[in-house]
User: What shape does this take?
Amino acid sequence: MEPAYDQPIADVASYVLHYEIDEADERVWERARLALLDAVGCAIETAATSDECRQLLGLTSKGLTVPDGFRVPGTDLQVDPLEGTFDLGVLIRYLDHNDALGGAEWGHPSGMMLAILTVM
Assistant: This one.
């Protein structure tokens, strides 16, 4: 018998599995598109402008290329999903100037999509 999950985890799982986006609500898709562009834009800008940040990338796989692995935006790195999640997170959050979106929120959309982007 599997142990029961805590109620907050069960609630999140239920929401993810059962919530339906109204196809007519273009605002939802526009906000998602803007969050994705914001995150990728920050990652590419950081990769292009910060030597210090680039030194943090690929730490566990220096010189290793993973066939069909995650391509880290703005770099020549192709790494496994775990390394890719870390590297993308570092690139997105390093300059820390993309916090304007939803400033009063507890988390930034770019911080929420790292793992999803690396395994897509």
Notes: The longest strand covers residues 70-71. The chain has a mean pLDDT of 79. The radius of gyration is 17 Å.
